[in-house]
Structure formats: C-alpha cells, structure tokens
Amino acid sequence: MGMSASQARLLAITSRMNDIELRSQQIANTKLRLADESDQVAQKYTNALNANKITMTKYDEKGNTSQVSLKPSNLPKDYQLVNVKTNKKVTNSSITSSQMYEMIQSGQYRLEKKQDVTNDNGVTKKEWTEVSIASDPSLGIASDDSKFALAEAEYNAATQKINNKEKKLDQQLKTMDTEHSALQTEQDSVKSLIKDNVDKSFNLFS
Fold first, then answer.
1. Do residues 197 and 10 lie in contact, with contact meaning Cβ atoms separated by under 8 Å?
2. What is the CB neighbour count within 10 angstroms for residue 106?
3. Which of 47, 103, 124, 202 lies 20 to 30 Å from 15 when distance is taken between CA atoms?
4. Roughly how many angstroms between the first and final C-alpha of the chain, as a whole number?
C-alpha cells in the first residue's frame, strides 16, 4: 500500500472509530435513561403496594359490621373533605379512596365532621370541625389492594420492555466493541506501515 493510500485508509479508520465512540456514548446515555425509567417503574409499583385507604365501620340492624372504603363521593352527610387553602368542600367524584387518604396525609386537605360544639356561652350547635382518623372510632386505615393485580401487570410489562431494550443496546455495544478493536488493530498496522514508508523515504534521500 502506497503512502497516499495508507494515509487515506488511516483517515477512514480514524473517522469510523470516532463514529463508533460517539455511538457508544449515546448508547451509554440511553442506558442511563432506561435505568431512571426502571427506578420510576419500581417506585410506582411500590407506591401501589403501599397504598392505603380510609375505611368506615358500619352496623346493620342485626349489629353486624362491614367496612366501607371512603371517598368524597360516598362520604356520609356529616363528613366532608375540605381543601385547606380554599376552605372549600371537595366534590370530585373521580377521587379514589387511596387518593383521598394521600390528600389528607399531604396536609393540603382535611376531613371534617359535623358535630355538637358548645361555645363559651354554653350554647351547643352543630359545626364542622376537623376530625382525625385516629380520634374517630368509626374510621380506620386499611391497605388498598384494589389495584394490586393491575399494578403488578403494568410493572411486569414495563420491566420486560426495559429489559428488552437493554439487551438490544448491550448487543449493539458488543458488536461495536468488536469492530472498534479490529479497527484499532488495523489502525496500528497502517500507522506502522506509514512509519516504515517514511523511514524508507528518509533513508533513500539521506
């Protein structure tokens, strides 16, 4: 291979190696994003498993008890969910039991109950007052398992999708690493050939 051909081949090899290195960095960045996505999927699944809801114990005519999952749409008339900032009753019927629990836990909403309150003058009347779950014997907290199956299915599907993407990226990296190694070897060989040609030319004219 002549000097000009060797130089041209060296430039082509170097360009291709640079392309591979850039692509490898892009794949590495994509894998980092997949890792973040995987963390988000896992956190969503964990949140679903740890979801709680507010329940109310109800009694029938025979004294039998039943647990009802409370949400704004089925709160008894003497209970209401209130926005702390606006001091307005929440009436959104799409809010679930677990969402209502999270809203109250956030401190941005409160649960109120209409009950007898006696003022300083000894006058008793019904007023809305904040009530805690712990202080109201009819209220309780339970795990919300209504979406466990759905959360698990979504988690498994999302995890499988991420794993498939990672496998493809790993295969691409492996292929590029092999090509990069081969190009590195060829680059060293061409550099050596160019050096030999330069040395021969130098010796010829010295």
1. no
2. 9
3. 202
4. 23
Given a contact cutoff of 8 angstroms between Cβ atoms, the answer to whether 125 and 107 are in contact is no
In a 13 Å sphere around the CA of 188, the CA atoms on its Cβ side amount to 5
Which of these, 109, 105, 202, 183, lies nearest to 144 by C-alpha position? 105
Q: Say if CB 125 and CB 18 are below 8 A apart.
A: no
Residue 186 sits at the vertex; the CA angle it makes with 185 and 191, to the nearest 5 degrees, is 100
Task: Work out the mean pLDDT of the chain and round it to a whole number.
Answer: 88
- Whether 55 and 68 have beta carbons less than 8 Å apart is answered as yes
164 φ/ψ angles, rounded to the nearest 5 degrees: -65, -40
What pTM value is reported for the model?
0.58
Helix (H) or strand (E) segment spanning residue 19: helix 3-49
